[in-house]
Amino acid sequence: MEEAKSQSLEEDFEGQATHTGPKGVINDWRKFKLESEDSDSIPPSKKEILRQMSSPQSRDDKDSKERISRKMSIQEYELIHQDKEDENCLRKYRRQCMQDMHQKLSFGPRYGFVYELESGEQFLETIEKEQKITTIVVHIYEDGIKGCDALNSSLMCLAAEYPIVKFCKIKACNTGAGDRFSSDVLPTLLIYKGGELISNFISVTDQFAEEFFAGDVESFLNEYGLLPEKEVHAPEQTNMDEEDME
């Protein structure tokens, strides 16, 4: 009698308790899915599939074992994965929030192009009034001097790749100290930070081959630790494709 009573209590407990094994967790999820969905919005065929998949079964029931061990049908697969599109939208939303937060928390202003300085006063104002954390690269050049045009083009590319670095250019004749910047020392690069000159390179193109590009200038500046870590953003479509493959 006690054994029968114990068995009855055990059966009642199994019918109400939360499953702990992997299959039990899946069954609990399926049951929750059925209960949480609006009954009017679920087609009868799908509702029956969920009901069968979530119903607790006796261990001695051969039909139950066959149902558990059988391969998942197409309908079951589509039902379980019908929220995949919503999950992708949620991931995209979270990624956008992270990008917005990163931009808000980024220290210092952002530039992205080469500034043309028109006078010595503007030159000094740029050096003295810019934020102390900002690296300023100034190219002193003159028209017709070999290497100046190529260096200006290279700096335009680097300005786009390093938007937190302020790249500037100024003609030697506009600096107010033209006698110090003769054609023999041009093009010249001056690098400032916190109002202080931290590096200067006269006739800088002598460090490059006769034909050079932005990558050559970038490598040269990196050798002296004058550029920050480059910002790299993976394409949006690539991120989505990787998530779809998970």
UniProtKB/TrEMBL annotation:
Against CDD domains, the record matches this protein to: Phd_like_Phd
Instruction: Using the record's annotation, list all stretches that form the Phosducin domain.
Output: 1-246
Main location, first listed in the record: other
Nucleus keyword on record: yes
Tell me which positions the record assigns to the signal sequence. none
* Claim: Cytoplasm is one of the keywords in the record: yes
Q: Where in the cell is it found?
A: Cell projection, Cilium, Photoreceptor outer segment; Cytoplasm, Cytosol; Nucleus; Photoreceptor inner segment
- Keywords recorded for this protein, A-Z: Cell projection, Cilium, Cytoplasm, Nucleus, Phosphoprotein, Sensory transduction, Vision
InterPro entries hit by this protein: Phosducin, Phosducin-like_reg, Phosducin_N_dom_sf, Phosducin_thioredoxin-like_dom, Thioredoxin-like_sf
Which residue ranges are recorded for the region named Disordered?
A: 1-66
Q: Which residues cross the membrane?
A: none
Q: Mind telling me which GO cellular component terms the entry cites?
A: cytosol; nucleus; photoreceptor inner segment; photoreceptor outer segment
Where does the source fall among the domains of life?
Eukaryota
Q: Where is the composition biased (Acidic residues)?
A: 1-14
GO terms in the biological process aspect are: visual perception
Q: Which PANTHER family match?
A: PHOSDUCIN (PTHR46052:SF3), PHOSDUCIN-LIKE PROTEIN (PTHR46052)
Family assignment from sequence similarity: Belongs to the phosducin family.
Q: What is this protein called?
A: Phosducin
**Which species expresses this protein natively?**
Daubentonia madagascariensis (Aye-aye)
